[in-house]
Amino acid sequence: MNNHHNILTAQEVAARLRISPQRAYELARLGLLPCIRIGRQVRFDEVKVEAWIAAGGRAYDQTMKNAA
């Protein structure tokens, strides 16, 4: 089993969602889009973002954390 997850930048997530990078950062800040914080940097786990999209883009919660 491959546990390697691709880590995406805000620009890459924004391109997939067809939103601006600023909107991706805002959704992450509001806790709506799952993200990883590395110091001041914000990154996105591809598997969790895909699960978020599959769930209809609803607010990210604990149940989705278990799906990834």
Brief characterization of the structure:
By secondary structure, the protein is of the alpha+beta class.
Tell me what the structure shows.
The chain is α+β, with helices and mostly antiparallel strands and 68 residues long. It has one domain (7-67): Multidrug-efflux Transporter Regulator, Chain: A, Domain 2, CATH 1.10.1660. It contains four helices and three strands; from the N terminus they run βααββαα. A three-stranded antiparallel beta sheet has the order 1-3-2. A hairpin with a 2-residue loop joins strand 2 (36-38) and strand 3 (41-45). Helix 1 (10-17) packs across helix 2.
List descriptors.
globular; 4 helices; Multidrug-efflux Transporter Regulator, Chain: A, Domain 2; three-stranded antiparallel β-sheet; alpha+beta
